[in-house]
């Protein structure tokens, strides 16, 4: 008798269907992966199974848990959820009560699952099982990192020894290294506790790594379902094929790295952050985000700066483009020496930055054309006509049409916006372009196109790239040389191929280990 | 917690000093001369001058300001020109009316506002919800001196349950004092209760859609239990912010309500003292009011720090 | 522009906003009309026609000086609205830049502005009104000043809150990279994006301004005769309430009507323009 | 706990007694007043609110003024005046004590007058007592006062609140803790709320009917109405006129309409053009419709006056007919004075009802003869500085509440700016004669002169509208002098 059986599930909001005709079965301790892009209805399906749909949702079809339908009345459904189903959600930042210590929140889960006595020791056991130290239980959520918070969520889900664990995008908000650790943890827990696992994600590699059976969803419908080997090996539906293809990057490194003369050099750059001290109290020792970093970028070279989140790579990038100031050490661009925000105005058109989040990089109240042409203020001698022509050229260069310029940012997709962001960065014809996680916020299918675009632009305009990322696969597709950073220092350097075969520094090994197996 | 508290205290002291300086300067610039006012229409110029000297009005402003601040720190607010009594005694007498009135109004507004807000949020979208919110809209829109008068007409003139105004001193008859504060504190509390109800409802409705509530439900709590155990405390944060601001509005309201119910409060004291140019009394009274308001804001700030650990505990390492 | 048609579309499905907006526009229309025409000459004293009954030859009767209540109501509404509007203007013109500057510059300058805010806040509007009126004599202009001063910290607080949440966004960093000065960034990027926040607060402060004017008039510090305002009409009628109740009912209900309309319009506006606004649970600051 | 039988019994008995007592006559009274006095020493402050509480209640003078304005014996039971009218010899009452027990003697009278006449004296009416040359105690019960020049009003002036007899021991603290010889002693002052007095059992004269009296300060008219209707207050000595109809129609109350010593005038700056031209002042006088003003400002309560004199005074003569309400005559006079199409001027109004409302009505009346009046509202303190001291005004509206104060028109640099030799001669003779017939002739001449010269717009006499519980008797209907005298007030069935 199957643990979970969903027949003809339909979810609609005021008449508009979001999920239609969904069938799904899950045997005890069996694992099913659900893959689909944002808006495919996969999260709503998970919420429906747990009886957590918002009250405005209209649900049709049947959901049987161990043969009996989900109880209608809220109290019994809540008790069932508490005892038999564990859930882990996507946003670790807001999924925990900010005003309550994490230990208490775990204890509450244990208390609710029935055993009233001795839950103190159980909390410690759970913390240990998810890889957290005992003293973490007295911390508040904001005092823990994203990964640690996700582990607390998992501990809470396991408190009632559930038979079914539903994980809805548990790792997509984490950086790669932590992501891999959490996935391994889920794998180990599901196996040890013989729990059924419903794993939902938009990352095909994560789903493939964890679940023997995969179900592909698109726009509220099940496109294809079946064993992992069948879905990955010879996908029947076109959509599935596109998904699998996009997950494999075509690796195309340049034949020979052009050896131009040095364009930019950094000498012993450091950045110390003072902790916020009171007006009168003496300043307390601050943290050193960037520690004596030296590097050189040659003309038309593409260098990647990789490392786990918090290693100081973004801070270094901000200093290089002049958004921040180094506490000591100097930088030289062409013949000019500067320390960061004291970058002279004449040089600003030569260095530009592409931001990570396409949604936050455009002023919602300004037409996209106005935002793209904003950097041209740095070139006062350009007249109006030259200004407009240059913007039009750049927009066409990134594969979009100039007549889109009069529209507003919220009318474009993430991918299109990132292309506009690149156009804005290139409009002043810079020589050095710093790219901060250029594709990590995009859907998998769009990433490939943008990377290809970046590759072409570099060749056409002879640009020098400095790419900041923690995703080694993306780096290998774009960079001639890789610098690995850890705790503010560059610990290893080399060509991607060499680093991938013979990593020397253990940080590089950790990054490599975090990569999910090839499909 | 310590740096958070120290930071707030520094702000508190700075605000007070600025308030004292501005009050002193503003009042010094007031036209009209207290001595002339005391002696009336037919008094001779010599008599007026004699009184000015007697009251020490001739000394240079800075010296008087320093003397005033120094005196206040030791609790001596100086002598009132018109009534000859120590200002601190006069203020204490009036504070025995205004402080309990403001406090009662605050308690009433919380006692009425919060439960109604929670009720409206729990039955969101129902008739009760829209009804309560319409009531809250009206509550804010009624001028409190008009509402006060309607209360008096109903409860004092027709029903004779409560006095129409005036104040029986505490030491003479505590019960009488309380009775004379009932209607004024309700008149004062109405708009604040309405605002509190709206803010509480909005806060609770927002909380219901928060992620940690969904997690709590996932742990096995019903929506009601989740909101009660996790939601209410988080919903208190915006409510606390409003409470902090409300004391300032209550103080403004007391001045009007004291007129409607002819209560011997601090507000009316300031009024009469200003029209009689009893500047030293006005200064003292204003400072007491300003201290009251800033003190409440400080207390609410500290409460905020207590309720919300994010303010007082260091952020996670990067 | 696509924001407007999308916005107007949703507006119709928001009943309370429509009611509020219609009420406010009707009120403002009547008030403006009074500047050019009123049923009778507003301040002509005609003792013989005192206390004329409702619906007689004077639609809403006459007051203790024989002045036509309907005309007084219209002119009174104009004064109350102008006082509240100018007070909101003062709050906007001074408060918003202060708030923006505090958010952008930060550090000790922000601490100073916050202290000035607290200080301005600690002074109850009425005390400020009393001080101003004794300095410059009572009257509508001083009521504007007193209520305006009270609005400054409100708008500063709203502007700072809004700007702080935007300051860390990438397009602000992009603007800085493009060489824009802090002032240019505030004007071009921050101000337009907190506009909806400020507009909503403005409607609410407008309604509170009308109430505050009524309060000031009640204690004799607001509009002075021969001028008239809703608050003044209410005060004059209050002592003869038992003899002529309608004299107090008319201005009282008018005040309640305009305040409720403004609040409904304000809340409706908030939901329509920026649903995200409501989620932030912006505490409505009420005087 | 064992049931407290005893306590319950006592309670029952006590309540019975109480109910019984309720039938017996009440001997306490609660009087509402609009203004709270700034202090309680009548000899060191001019505010009328002080006298309302203390005059003839806590403090007494050598003489006292009765309800008709006539002078009656006070602490001086009888007195003789020398032929030349310069020496007054007063025989003082026996067995009189101050409320703190110290006996009253001639020494106290000497101390009181020396204190008034001292250089650093802060007495508001010091000028009235200037003619006193010496005050000597002949013996413990006799005092002789010698004047430099005869003063017709002397006996009246020493009967005013400003000349009540104070004891040296308590003179300095009377402001907050008044000690006098009157029938009521001071009990308690809760500032902003009320003042309580109690009957002085060792009073030397006839004991008053009331044993307790309290004054309650209620500034807001509507609040006052509610206090009366809710019977929290037994009466107002002088209440706002707008809701009187309410109390006339209610059997629980009675309304006593009288006059006060307050002449409401439109003060005119006689030195400020165009008001220095008699024809302009006459034109304004013709334009004023007194009855419409009285109806508008005090709902018909108030007696029109043609000159600066109280109608209830024996010497009063009705001069309202000097310049009857005649718009044509007013326009003709204005044309004659060179203002065919009128002029514009300003009127400064203190913060009182009769001024603020009166200003609006006069402004609309003057508008009909082309005179446009801008109304400027000022605070009292500002009025005293601008109008009274600096004479920086065109027109103003104010009430002069000092009794028998027609003499102020004789002072050329008083704020009216009126300097007329004939009038000054009449006043100087009036102030030195004591013969009644001659004083009446002079008073009439003075009133007529002011009326003809139209020195100010003489509007109406400030009414005294008393609203009392119907069962209270003995209140004064008129108030010839500032004060609410409790001596004769009592409850009847």
From TrEMBL, chain A:
TM helices/strands, residue ranges: none
Superkingdom of origin: Bacteria
Gene3D superfamilies for this protein: P-loop containing nucleotide triphosphate hydrolases
Parts forming coiled coils: none
GO terms assigned for molecular function: ATP binding; ATP hydrolysis activity
Keyword tags: ATP-binding, Nucleotide-binding, Transport
Short name of any one Pfam family annotated for the protein: ABC_tran
Stretch forming the signal peptide: none
Domain ABC transporter positions: 4-244, 273-512
PROSITE patterns, alphabetized: ABC_TRANSPORTER_1 (PS00211), ABC_TRANSPORTER_2 (PS50893)
GO biological process per UniProt: transmembrane transport
UniProt keyword annotation of Nucleotide-binding present: yes
UniProt similarity note: Belongs to the ABC transporter superfamily.
Protein's name according to its UniProt entry: ABC transporter ATP-binding protein
From TrEMBL, chain B:
Keywords: Cell membrane, Membrane, Transmembrane, Transmembrane helix, Transport
Residue intervals passing through the bilayer: 97-120, 132-157, 177-197, 235-261, 281-307
Domain of life from the UniProt record: Bacteria
Keyword DNA repair: no
Subcellular location: Cell membrane
PANTHER family (UniProt xref): DIPEPTIDE TRANSPORT SYSTEM PERMEASE PROTEIN DPPB-RELATED
Name of this protein: ABC transporter permease
Native source organism of the sequence: Arsenicitalea aurantiaca
TrEMBL record, chain C:
Annotated TM spans: 12-37, 81-107, 119-137, 197-221, 241-266
Residue intervals of the ABC transmembrane type-1 domain: 77-266
UniProt xrefs under Gene3D superfamilies: MetI-like
Organism: Arsenicitalea aurantiaca
Residues forming coiled coils: none
Pfam families: BPD_transp_1
Signal peptide region: none
InterPro entries xrefs: BP-dependent_transpt_permease (IPR050366), MetI-like (IPR000515), MetI-like_sf (IPR035906)
Protein name: ABC transporter permease
CDD domains for the chain: TM_PBP2
Record GO biological process: transmembrane transport
Record carries keyword Acetylation: no
Subcellular location: Cell membrane
Main location: membrane
UniProt membrane topology term: Multi-pass membrane protein
GO cellular component: plasma membrane
TrEMBL record, chain D:
Residues covered by the Solute-binding protein family domain: 71-401
GO biological process, one term: peptide transport
Keyword Signal: yes
Signal peptide residues on this chain, from the entry's feature table: 1-24
Principal subcellular localisation of the protein: periplasm
Domain of life, per lineage: Bacteria
Keyword entries, A-Z: Signal
Places the protein is found: Periplasm
Gene Ontology cellular component list: ATP-binding cassette (ABC) transporter complex; outer membrane-bounded periplasmic space
GO terms, molecular function: peptide transmembrane transporter activity
Family note: Belongs to the bacterial solute-binding protein 5 family.
Name of the molecule in the record: ABC transporter substrate-binding protein
Organism the protein comes from: Arsenicitalea aurantiaca
């Amino acid at each position: 008798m199957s643990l979970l059986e969903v027949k003809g599930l339909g979810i609609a909001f005021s008449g508009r269907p979001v999920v239609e005709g969904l069938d799904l079965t899950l045997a005890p301790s069996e694992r099913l992966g659900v893959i689909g892009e944002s808006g495919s209805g996969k999260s709503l399906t998970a919420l429906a199974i747990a009886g957590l749909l918002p009250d405005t949702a209209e649900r049709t079809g049947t959901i049987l848990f161990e043969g009996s339908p989900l109880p209608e009345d809220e109290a019994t459904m809540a008790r069932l959820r508490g005892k038999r189903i564990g859930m882990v959600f996507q946003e670790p930042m807001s999924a925990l009560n900010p005003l309550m210590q994490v230990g208490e929140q775990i204890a509450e889960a244990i208390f609710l699952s029935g055993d009233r006595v001795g839950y103190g020791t159980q909390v410690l056991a759970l913390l240990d099982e998810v890889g957290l130290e005992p003293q973490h239980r007295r911390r508040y959520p904001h005092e823990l990192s994203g990964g640690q918070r996700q582990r607390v969520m998992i501990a809470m889900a396991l408190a009632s020894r559930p038979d079914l664990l539903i994980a809805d995008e548990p790792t997509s908000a984490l950086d790669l290294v932590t992501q891999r650790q959490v996935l391994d943890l889920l794998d180990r827990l599901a196996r040890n506790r013989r729990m059924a696992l419903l794993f939902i994600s938009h990352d095909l590699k994560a789903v493939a790594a964890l679940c023997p059976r995969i179900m592909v969803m698109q726009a509220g419908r099940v496109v294809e379902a079946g064993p992992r080997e069948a879905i990955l090996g010879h996908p029947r539906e076109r959509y599935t094929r596109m998904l699998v293809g996009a997950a494999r990057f075509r690796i195309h490194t340049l034949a020979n790295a052009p050896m131009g003369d040095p364009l930019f050099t950094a000498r012993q750059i450091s950045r110390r952050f003072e902790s916020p001290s009171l007006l009168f109290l003496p300043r307390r020792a601050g943290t050193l985000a960037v520690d004596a970093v030296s590097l050189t970028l040659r003309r038309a070279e593409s260098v990647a700066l990789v490392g786990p989140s918090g290693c100081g790579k973004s801070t270094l990038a901000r200093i290089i483009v002049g958004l921040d100031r180094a506490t000591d050490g100097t930088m030289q661009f062409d013949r000019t020496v500067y320390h960061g925000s004291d970058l002279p105005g004449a040089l600003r058109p030569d260095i530009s930055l592409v931001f990570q989040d396409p949604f936050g990089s455009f002023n919602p109240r300004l037409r996209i054309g106005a935002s793209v042409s904003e950097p041209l203020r740095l070139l006062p001698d350009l007249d109006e006509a030259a200004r407009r022509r240059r913007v039009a050229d750049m927009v066409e260069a990134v594969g979009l049409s100039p007549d889109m310029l009069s529209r507003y940012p919220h009318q474009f997709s993430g991918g299109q916006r990132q292309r506009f962001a690149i156009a804005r960065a290139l409009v002043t014809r810079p020589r050095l372009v710093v790219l901060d996680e250029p594709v990590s916020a995009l859907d998998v299918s769009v990433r490939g196109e943008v990377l290809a675009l970046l590759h072409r632009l570099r060749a056409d305009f002879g640009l020098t790239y400095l790419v900041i990322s923690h995703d080694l696969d993306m780096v290998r597709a774009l960079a001639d040389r890789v610098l690995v950073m850890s705790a503010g220092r560059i610990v290893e350097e080399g060509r991607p191929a060499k680093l991938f075969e013979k990593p020397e520094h253990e940080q590089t090994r950790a990054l490599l280990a975090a990569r999910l197996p090839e499909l | 917690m310590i740096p958070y508290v120290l930071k707030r205290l520094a702000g508190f002291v700075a605000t007070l000093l600025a308030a004292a300086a501005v009050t002193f300067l503003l009042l010094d610039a007031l036209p009209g001369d207290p001595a002339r006012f005391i002696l009336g229409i037919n008094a001779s110029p010599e008599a007026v001058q004699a009184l000015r000297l007697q009251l020490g009005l001739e000394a240079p402003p800075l010296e008087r300001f320093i003397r005033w601040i120094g005196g206040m720190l030791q609790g001596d607010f100086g002598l009132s020109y018109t009534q000859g009594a120590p200002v601190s005694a006069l203020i204490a007498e009036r504070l025995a009316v205004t402080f309990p009135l403001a406090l009662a109004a605050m308690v009433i507004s919380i006692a009425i506002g919060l439960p109604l807000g929670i009720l409206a949020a729990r039955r969101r979208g129902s008739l009760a919800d829209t009804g309560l919110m319409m009531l809250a809209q009206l509550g804010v829109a009624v001028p409190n001196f008009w509402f006060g008068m309607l209360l008096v007409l109903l409860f004092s003139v027709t029903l004779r349950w409560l006095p129409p105004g005036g104040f029986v001193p505490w030491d003479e008859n505590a019960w009488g004092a309380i009775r004379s504060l009932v209607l004024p504190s309700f008149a004062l509390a109405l708009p604040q209760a309405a605002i509190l109800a709206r803010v509480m409802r909005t806060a609770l409705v927002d909380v219901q859609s928060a992620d940690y509530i969904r997690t709590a439900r996932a742990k096995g709590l019903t929506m009601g239990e989740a909101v009660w155990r996790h939601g209410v405390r988080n919903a208190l944060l915006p409510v606390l912010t409003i409470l902090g601001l409300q004391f300032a509005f209550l103080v403004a309201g007391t001045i009007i309500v004291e007129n409607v119910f002819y209560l011997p409060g601090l507000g009316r004291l300031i009024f009469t003292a200003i029209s009689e140019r009893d500047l030293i009394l006005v200064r003292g009274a204003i400072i007491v009011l300003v201290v009251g308001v800033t003190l409440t804001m400080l207390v609410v700030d500290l409460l905020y720090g207590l309720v919300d650990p994010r303010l007082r505990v260091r952020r996670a390492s990067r | 522009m696509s924001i407007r048609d999308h916005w107007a579309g949703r507006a119709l499905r928001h009943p309370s906003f429509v009611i509020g907006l219609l009420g406010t526009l009707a009120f403002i229309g009547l008030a403006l009309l009074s500047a050019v025409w009123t049923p009778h000459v507003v301040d002509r004293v005609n003792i013989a026609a005192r206390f004329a009954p409702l619906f007689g030859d004077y639609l809403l009767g006459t007051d203790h000086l024989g002045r036509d209540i309907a005309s007084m109501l219209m002119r009174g509404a104009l004064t109350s609205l102008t006082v509240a509007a100018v007070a909101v203007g003062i709050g906007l013109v001074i408060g918003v830049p202060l708030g923006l500057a505090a958010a952008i510059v930060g550090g000790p300058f922000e601490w100073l502005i916050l202290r000035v805010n607290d200080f301005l806040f600690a002074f109850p509007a009425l005390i400020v009104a009393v001080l101003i009126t004794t300095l410059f004599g009572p009257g509508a202009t001083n009521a504007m000043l007193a209520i305006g001063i009270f609005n400054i910290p409100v708008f500063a607080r709203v502007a700072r809150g809004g700007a702080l949440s935007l300051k860390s966004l990438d397009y602000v960093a992009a603007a800085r990279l493009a060489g824009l000065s802090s002032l240019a960034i505030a004007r071009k990027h921050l101000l337009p994006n907190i506009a909806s926040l400020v507009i909503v607060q403005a409607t609410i402060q407008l309604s509170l301004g009308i109430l505050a004017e009524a309060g000031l008039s009640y204690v004799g510090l607001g509009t002075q005769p021969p001028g008239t305002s809703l608050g003044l009409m209410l005060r004059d009628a209050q002592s003869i309430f038992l003899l002529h109740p309608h004299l107090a009912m008319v201005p009282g209900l008018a005040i309640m009507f305009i305040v409720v309309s403004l609040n409904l319009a304000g809340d409706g506006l908030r939901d329509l323009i920026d649903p995200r606004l409501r989620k932030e649970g912006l505490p409505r600051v009420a005087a | 706990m064992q049931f407290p039988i005893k306590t319950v019994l006592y309670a029952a008995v006590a309540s019975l007694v109480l109910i019984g007592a309720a039938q017996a006559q009440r001997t306490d009274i609660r009087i509402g007043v609009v203004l709270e006095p700034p202090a309680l020493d009548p000899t060191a402050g001019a505010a009328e609110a002080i006298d309302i509480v203390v005059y003839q209640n806590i403090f007494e003078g050598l003489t006292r003024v009765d309800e008709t304005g006539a002078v009656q014996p006070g602490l001086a039971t009888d007195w003789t005046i020398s032929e030349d009218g310069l020496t007054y010899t007063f025989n003082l009452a026996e067995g009189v004590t101050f409320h703190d027990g110290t006996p009253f003697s001639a020494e106290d009278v000497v101390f009181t007058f020396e204190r008034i006449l001292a250089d650093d004296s802060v007495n508001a009416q010091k000028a009235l007592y200037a003619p006193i040359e010496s005050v000597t105690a002949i013996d413990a019960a006799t005092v002789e006062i010698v004047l430099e020049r005869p003063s017709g009003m002397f006996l009246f002036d020493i009967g005013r609140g400003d000349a009540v007899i104070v004891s040296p021991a308590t003179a300095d603290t009377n402001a907050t803790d008044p000690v006098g010889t009157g029938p009521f002693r001071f009990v308690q002052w809760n500032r902003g709320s009320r003042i309580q007095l109690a009957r002085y059992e060792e009073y030397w004269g006839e004991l008053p009917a009331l044993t307790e009296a309290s004054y309650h300060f209620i500034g807001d008219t509507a609040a006052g109405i509610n206090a009366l209707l809710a019977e929290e207050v037994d009466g107002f000595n002088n209440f706002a006129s707008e809701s009187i109809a309410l109390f006339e129609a209610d059997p629980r109350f009675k309304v006593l309409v009288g006059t006060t010593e307050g002449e409401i005038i439109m003060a005119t700056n006689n030195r400020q053009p165009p008001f220095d031209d008699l024809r302009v002042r006459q034109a304004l006088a013709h334009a004023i419709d007194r009855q419409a003003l009285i109806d508008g400002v005090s709902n018909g309560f108030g007696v029109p006056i043609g000159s600066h004199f109280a109608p209830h005074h024996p010497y009063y003569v009705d001069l309202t007919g000097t310049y009857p309400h005649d718009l044509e005559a007013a326009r003709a006079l204005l044309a004659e004075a060179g203002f065919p199409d009128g002029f514009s001027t300003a009127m400064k109004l203190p913060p009182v009802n009769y001024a603020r409302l009166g200003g609006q009505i006069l402004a609309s009346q003057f508008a009909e003869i082309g005179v446009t009046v801008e109304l400027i509202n000022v605070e009292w303190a500002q009025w005293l500085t601008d109008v009274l001291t600096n004479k920086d005004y065109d027109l103003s509206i104010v009430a002069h509440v000092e009794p028998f104060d027609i003499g102020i028109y004789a002072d050329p640099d008083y704020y009216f700016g009126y300097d007329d030799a004939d009038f000054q001669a009449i006043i100087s003779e009036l102030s030195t004669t004591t013969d009644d017939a001659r004083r009446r002739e002079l008073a009439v001449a003075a009133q007529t002169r002011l009326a003809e010269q139209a020195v100010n717009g003489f509007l109406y006499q400030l009414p005294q509208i008393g609203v009392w519980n119907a069962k209270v008797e003995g209140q004064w209907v008129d108030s010839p002098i500032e004060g609410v005298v409790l001596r004769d007030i009592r409850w009847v069935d």
